[in-house]
Amino acid sequence: MSTKKFPVPLSYFSMPLGLFALGLSWRYGAHIGLLPHWAAETLLAAAFALWLLLVIAYIIKIRFFRPEFLQDLQDLVQCCFISAIPITTMLAGLAALPYQTLLAKGLILLGTAGQLAFAMYRAGGLWRGVHTLDATTPIVYLPTVATNFVSATAMAALGWSDYAWLFLGAGMFSWLSLEAAILSRLRTGTPVNAPVRGIVGIQLAPAFVGCGAYFAVSGGHIDAFALLLIGYGCLQFLLLLRLLPWMLEQGFSPSFWGFSFGLAAMTGCGFHLIAEQRLLFLGYFLATAGSGLVMLLLLATLNLARQGRLWVK
Q1: Are 230 and 218 in contact (CB under 8 A)?
Q2: Residue 153 parent element (H or E)
Q3: pLDDT (tens digit, 9 = 90+) per residue, 68-114?
Q4: Rg, the chain, Cα only
Q5: Rounded distance, CA 254 to CA 11, Å?
Q6: DSSP-assigned letters across all residues of 128-166
Q7: Which GO cellular component terms are attached (predicted)?
Q8: Angle at 22 between CA 21 and CA 23, to 5 degrees
Q9: Average model confidence (pLDDT) across the chain
Q10: Which of 222, 290, 270, 203 is nearest to 18 (CA)?
Q11: Does residue 312 lie within any of the structural domains?
């Protein structure tokens, strides 16, 4: 058994998560004629390759770095990132769906089973009173909110609409049950440690990702409920902009990929507004800002890699 530290943190699964989500938003943008198809498919292919590399890396971690894997599993914060594995597996299935239906269904079903199993372990286990206030950050949304919203989107893509609505309900009510506790901790608890403050950006995701899931199960039309979700997402975006100087006190770190899922879903919501000729200025802003900021995350991460600061040493 190796005594070296594993160089790839579990949280790095947030990178293909954000890239998959943006690629799927771009695929919709291409469908409505706003983007070239090759741009969306190229981004999805890159996300798929990165996801596959990280899955292989994590299998190696489980096999040869078992103490670190067990530490991930027991850490109240880091273990939530395990949910990113089934989430990205389902997103990989959505990316593959136009090309290989059988593979796509397999990945979606595997991801859905995995996320439910981990939710039973993680979220259900916390009902014994073992959670702490300091660990109650937006990362807590991953095991029951993000996972179920993505399952809803995936089930809708497969044509399983009743299951899609079930998962949408699971994600929506999980979000509502967690929101007040998380915001209360951010307001009144100890400040999130400077090196990982980027995870606060996950707060952007539930409204926009939930809206994307709602579009998937309801036919994709802008209605009053969709506007309510977009409005709340826009408010979170403004509040997080206010916090950026505080988050960047120690410079950019990979934790800022916590923003990526919300930004990518924000892009998709913008495209839906544009497609239906509703609130066009807002639609173009959401699509442009969301896409541009995810690309900025990618460039900043490549710069970290160039400087040799991306991998754990």
Answers
A1: no
A2: helix 147-157
A3: 989 988 888 889 999 999 999 999 999 999 999 999 999 999 999 99
A4: 18
A5: 8
A6: GTT--STT-SGGGGIIIIIHHHHHHHHHHHTT-HHHHHH
A7: plasma membrane
A8: 90
A9: 95
A10: 290
A11: no
Q: Would you call 165 exposed, middle or buried from its count of C-beta atoms within 10 A (0-12, 13-18, 19+)?
A: middle
Establish if 64 belongs to a structural domain.
Answer: yes
Sign (positive or negative) of CA dihedral 255, 259, 265, 267? negative
Q: Which two tokens stand for residue 158?
A: 């497969």
Residue 33 gets the label, from left (phi > 0), alpha (psi -120 to 50) or beta, of: left
- State the average pLDDT over residues 186-190: 94
* Residue 128: per-residue pLDDT: 86
Mean pLDDT of 229-252: 97
Sign of CA dihedral 28, 229, 90, 139: positive
- The CATH number of residue 125's host domain is 1.50.10.150
Using pLDDT thresholds of 50, 70 and 90, give the confidence band for residue 3.
low
Task: Write the single-letter amino acid at 271.
Answer: F
- What is the C-alpha to C-alpha distance for residues 85 and 110, in angstroms, rounded to an integer? 11
> How many domains does the structure of the chain reveal?
1
Q: Could you tell me the two tokens for 113?
A: 């089973």
